[in-house]
Design a protein that fits this description.
This protein is an alpha+beta fold and about 400 residues long. It has 2 domains: about 220 residues, Ribosomal Protein S5, domain 2 (2-Layer Sandwich); about 180 residues, Alpha-Beta Plaits. It is about 35% helix and about 20% strand. A 6-stranded mixed beta sheet has the order 8-7-9-6-1-17. Bound molecules: ligand 2P0.
């Protein structure tokens, strides 16, 4: 039986979220998504946060279709189209169909490449929570299409064209996105700095802050920053290159003191460039600022950096700490921002033990509690890159190529 006559099985994969400790903010090429500086992130564990994507091709499909979190979405989005076109081009190249420009005119290529694709994708966390869903989403799309079409090799360059930060979600552990120099973006790729097993004591505590306001999106925000912020230019040229080298070294040495300090300074400088943008962009809200102050009081009391914060394009705090700090710090957070309702669902993710911090610590770090300011906490740790899911019951699309309603 020829390869293209085989029944076409759906392929399902999962991919992780990542959180940057050296921030990406600003493009030098909007279409190819080429950044003005390198960046570095920690890939978070998929046991807590992940995107799942199923893709399937069939000769019976009449058009490419996409479902996001159960709802049909526009498949014509330019970034989605870039990823699809690139993956089909790589598949054609691999099958010896030549490196054509992606459309099938003149060269139909192997039959299954001309088939339309159905794609369904969902997150196991609320998209509205502002937890970098585009990174996991595009990483998962590209990885799933690669498995579907049998494409191997460098894929972060394709994921980058979906969303810049997505290229870093193509690897587990600690990952750098090297900005590259070429106009075609071939050298703007992600690389693993250290695997997820490298720093086993490292934990990541996410504080999901209650917020109603719609914020300026990253893509538009960074465009305005590139156009107006002198601080951003200075940062990209004179600050980030050195910080990249330092951060890699701190990670390699498992030096939490230095890693934590640099992570906080990076976050602060990123938000300073947002303030330096004209008109200014504010992502931190009052609760974010209270978390910053709490972390500094906590570290001040201990006389060293035990907890480090970082914030992206929203008010949620992502805190790094070592395993032995988690229980005490979570207790401090609970007392500072007590849940207003559903207190049994306040702590999610990896287990946390009850702790009884000393009176001395509590009186040094606590201020008036702000009930309800934080919706919930999620404890996770560094985790692996995208994976293939073998279990057929996890497919998001049924045998008819439509979303499964009976799951
Ligand atoms: C980062 N962020 O390095 C930075 C820090 C937000 C703040 O990457 O336009 O969604 O799709 O390339 O990747 C958010 O930007 O933007 C981001 P696009 P993306 O994680």
């Amino acid at each position: 039986m020829a390869e293209d006559d085989k029944p076409l099985a759906p392929v399902t994969c999962t991919a992780p979220v990542n959180i940057a400790v050296i921030k990406y903010w600003g493009k030098r090429d909007e279409d190819l998504i080429l950044p003005i500086n390198s960046s570095l992130s920690v890939t978070l564990h998929q046991d807590q946060l992940r995107t799942t994507t199923t893709a399937v091709i069939s000769r019976d499909f009449t058009e490419d279709r996409l479902w996001l979190n159960g709802k049909e979405a526009d498949v014509g989005h330019p970034r989605l189209q870039s990823c699809l076109r690139e993956m089909r081009r790589l598949a054609r190249k691999r099958r010896g169909g030549g490196d054509s420009n992606g459309d099938n005119s003149g060269d139909p290529g192997p039959l299954s490449l001309a088939y339309k694709v159905h794609i369904a994708s969902e997150n196991n966390f609320p998209t509205a929570a502002g937890l970098a869903s585009s990174a996991a989403g595009y990483a998962c799309l590209v990885y799933t299409l690669a498995r579907l079409y049998g494409v191997e090799g460098e894929l972060s360059e394709v994921a980058r064209q979906g969303s810049g930060s997505a290229c870093r979600s193509m690897f587990g552990g600690f990952v750098q996105w090297i900005m590259g120099e070429n106009a075609d973006g071939k050298d703007s790729v992600a690389q693993q700095v250290a695997p997820e097993t490298h720093w086993p004591q490292l934990r990541v505590l996410i504080l999901v802050v209650s917020a109603e306001k719609k914020l300026v999106g990253s893509t538009a925000g960074m465009q305005t920053s590139v156009q107006t912020s002198l601080l951003l230019k200075h940062r990209a040229k004179a600050v980030v290159p050195e910080r990249m080298a330092q951060m890699i070294e701190h990670i390699q040495q498992q030096d939490f003191e230095a890693f934590g300090k640099l992570t906080m300074k990076e976050s602060n400088q990123f938000h300073a460039t947002c303030l330096d943008t004209f008109p200014p962009i504010f992502y931190l809200n009052d609760v974010s600022k209270q978390v910053v102050a709490l972390v500094h009081r906590f570290n001040g009391h201990h006389g060293k950096t035990k907890v480090a914060y970082t914030f992206d394009a929203g008010p949620n705090a992502v805190l790094f700490m070592l395993e032995d700090t988690v229980d005490e710090f979570v207790e401090v957070v609970k007392r500072s921002f007590p849940p207003e309702k559903n207190s049994d669902q306040f702590l999610t993710g990896l287990p946390v033990e009850a702790a009884a911090p000393s009176e001395e610590l509590l009186s040094a770090v606590l201020t008036d509690p702000v009930p309800g300011a934080i919706q919930y906490l999620l404890l996770t740790k560094p985790g692996p890159g995208p994976v293939l899911v073998e279990d057929a019951s996890c497919h998001l699309l049924g045998a008819d190529g439509l979303p499964r309603s009976n799951r």
